[in-house]
# Entry
Amino acid sequence: MIKTFPNGGVHPAEDKFAAGSPIKVLPAPETVIIPVSQHIGAPAEPVVAKGDKVKTGQLIAKSKGFVSANIHSSVTGTVKKIDRETDSSGYKRTSIVINTEEDQWNEGIDTSKALNRNIAAGADEIVRKTLDAGIVGLGGATFPSHIKLSVPKGKKAEILIINGVECEPCLTSDHRLMLEKGEELMVGIQLMMKALNVRRAIIGIEKNKPDALEYLGKLSSDYEGITVNALKVKYPQGGEKQLIKALINREVPSGGLPLDVGAVVHNVGTAFAVYEAVQKNKPLIERVVTVTGKELSKPSNFMVRIGTPVKALIDAAGGLPESTGKIVNGGPMMGKALNSLEVPVTKGTSGILLIPAAEAARKPVVNCMRCAKCISVCPMGLEPHLLMPATEFGKWDLAEEEKILDCMECGSCSYICPSGRPLLDYIRLGKSTVSKIIRSRKQ
# Structure
């Protein structure tokens, strides 16, 4: 029987239009806008000034605090300004704007495509290089990766789980990365295993990617301790807690972390970034982004420099269809709509989705009919129909009691609701408010 998580989940249309499109390198734009906050935690602090010349891969903003991440220049050029620019959230954030010139790579970076399988770095050096390179979780969470590779005292990692599920509809960047950078992924996984001092790693991939399952399955036979497991196609299979339950049948407790059950979970994109950081001394300055949509002429997967305007990606994929009603940063389930095409690609940008106007409008909202469908599909066992009014009417004690912070924001509840209720929108707001209340108690 193919493995999966037991509770909840939905089956939205996959719409993987770009699955057969190989990764193309998108040329650097004339100007890049690089926010200093592209991660969970404290924003990085700029270490360059207006007028400075920078090289590709050069540190331009230094992490500030343990939960933070370095930011590097994705291009060679001149710092035009450091100012507040609009990012994908719709808010203005401190960003470093650079006018691009011909690439000159920072000293020590290996730009060759040659595979380096020789692992010379020790565990501490792997963690340090991950920190120095500014690597964050590339599955969308953008949590600084060096933290997840640093097992705290009193805890022990037993197994590394690599998330190759890519259950979000429409997105195919991880799929293409597994097919085209499989050997590098394997070395990256070995590096992570060494940093964590574990002897076992499992790559979880949904069965709708048979080519990736077959390819990585063959490669894994040459890498001790690494196995590949097929998973049932069910959303949100790629959630950390769902993936752990499906692969090793361990349940992360409410409010707990994967490490509480001996597991550490990283995305395939993160594993590739760790390979480049440790084996090539290359910081995280680019990533694979899917550009897709039902009416887009050339759905594509691009290797994109951080800071590239979204418009450049859409132009390279055939241009904006006249029928477009909404442009989403991410996929249709967890993504968020953009209000401008000039916002930059960041470390957390996995895809750009163009939704036709006929499908972009929300359903009319009517009263909850108590059908309980939102409860049946919630992978965390929550009651979304109760969490929405708790937020709407400011019942924060109730929201906390009903474990609103356990919500993984997968959107299954909103997807299934026959009354068109914006459940996830309210729950996101409620999570933010309850988190602030809890933090204020500890001060």
The first strand starts at residue 23 and ends at 25. The radius of gyration is 21 Å.
